[in-house]
Amino acid sequence: MNPFWTVSLFWIATAVCVAVALAFVLPPLLRRKEVVAKAARRDINIAVYRDQMKEMEADRNNGLLSEEQFEAGKLELEARLAEDALAKADAVMAPVASRRLGFTMAGVLPAAAFALYFWLGNPMSLISIAEAQANPAMAEAAQGQHDIMKLIKQVEDKTKADPNDGAAWAILAKTYAAVGHWPEALQAYEKAMKLKPDMPAIMTGYAEALAIGRDRVLKGEPIKLVLQALEKDPNDMKGLELAAIGAFQEKNFAQAAYYFKHLHKLLPAESPYAQDILEAQKEANRLARGTMTGMDNLSDQGPAKVAGPGATLHGKVDISPALKAKISDKDVVFLFARSASGGAPVAAIRSTATKFPLEFELSDAMAMNPDNKLSNFKEVTLTVRVSKSGDPKGGAGDLEGSLAGVKVGSKDIKLTIDKIHP
User: Please, are residues 328 and 287 in contact by the beta-carbon 8 Å criterion?
Assistant: First the structure.
């Protein structure tokens, strides 16, 4: 039923009930009453006097009373009759107070009934019920919200009973986050971090709560927590999501694509979330290719044996201890894969030198030329360059490292930055 009609019918029924109640209470109070007790007694007395007069006249005619006795009796009866005839009828009206009470109750009773309902009842529930009938999905959502708030209360009681229960604090923080209570979630995560500082799920949840309070910017402490969590658990889904978003924010699109791809593998393929992550991965790959358009575009010296579609290279880039002091947060890292005989890169990615070792994955999605891609080759040479100027062609003082004869499809590749560009 339409919410308007549901609420209207309720108030109509309420008004009818009040009217019925007043119909029983008011009539006895408002009816005018006359009491004629004394007036009726006067009429009776006059009738008695008349009868007595007739008897006296009969007695006089029959010689039982003399004329003098008759006149004396007659005068006495006339005097008594005149006294009763002149007496006021004692008609008594119904007390005015009772009529006032009736009118007062007619106004006060309905007002009091409605006032008590609005005070002790819940008028808004009428609208809620009507809307729930009109929209079952909304009713289910409201029930879900109620269940979550009930869970929050239970976990809050648990943390109060045992403030050192790190698991309870973690559950409370996650539940707060689920309903969007981020300040409370941050406080709960802080408690959980103190009690369980090495749990990846707590680290990534805390990082998210910190970022929400910083306009969703992950740079700084939040992304550090995320990367630490991924070192402990590379499959932490919240960590992968935040790492991808952080890379996007820093315009490290190839790195973002890597994290999105890893996350997508852990999700049910048909879920809406998985589809969103896949679209984000495609966008990151597209942007990653766009950042490499300024690099050299030498012609290929000839393709080797085709390695097959979908070929990838996966590994880590590290830096020698002697060169770590020369790394700056403003440096840009470029990674290229070229054919063994040289030429234009067949795949390339761009990142920042914020953390080593730097995990990477090269695939056909990173190709600069669709006709010259990684899967066209059996072996490639990997080159990593830390550019001080941000120019992928490099310059004096840039840090470099290379590895030749890398088979396409290899995993766990270790590429080290170990020299300075002259």
Answer: no
Q: How far apart are alpha carbons 179 and 288 in whole angstroms?
A: 35
- Residue 325, exposed/middle/buried by CB under 10 A (0-12, 13-18, 19+)? exposed
List residues bridging with 299 in a β-sheet. Answer: none
Q: Do residues 288 and 349 make contact, with C-beta atoms less than 8 angstroms apart?
A: yes
* Residues contacting residue 53 through CB under 8 Å, at least 6 positions apart: 74, 77
What ranges make up the beta strands (E) of 57-111?
A: 92-93
- Give the model confidence (pLDDT) of 285-321 as tens digits: 888 766 554 443 332 323 333 334 457 899 999 999 9
Q: How many helices (H) and strands (E) does the chain have?
A: 13, 10
Dist. CA 327–CA 317, nearest whole Å = 14
Q: Computed from CA positions of residues 346, 351, 357, 361, in that sequence, does the dihedral angle turn out positive or negative?
A: negative
Helices (H), 179-252: 182-195, 200-212, 221-232, 237-249
List 407's β-bridge partners, or say none.
379
Taking the C-alpha atoms of residue 234 and residue 259, their distance in angstroms, rounded to an integer, is 10
The pair of structure tokens assigned to 220 is 């700084």
- Report how far Cα 392 is from the mean position of its chain's Cα atoms: 47
Closest CA to 106 of 22, 45, 207, 210: 22
Please state whether 241 falls in left (phi above 0), alpha (psi between -120 and 50) or beta. Answer: alpha
Burial 75-102 (b: 16+ CB within 10 A, else e): eeeeeebeeeeeeeeeeeeeeeeeeeeb
Other CB atoms within 10 A of residue 245 CB: 21
N-to-C CA span, the chain: 81
Backbone phi and psi for residue 37, each to the nearest 5 degrees, phi listed first? -65, -50
In angstroms, the CA 104 to CA 107 distance is 5
Question: What 3 state SS string does 154-186 have?
Answer: HHHHHHHHCCCCHHHHHHHHHHHHHCCCHHHHH
Whether 242 has a pLDDT exceeding 90, the answer reads yes
Contact 3, 134 (CB under 8 A): yes
Instruction: Give the Cα separation of 53 and 3 in Å (integer).
Output: 84
Give pLDDT tens digits for 13-63. Answer: 777 777 777 777 667 666 654 444 444 566 666 677 677 777 878 777 777
pTM > 0.85: no
- 296 Cβ contact list (under 8 Å, min separation 6): 344, 393
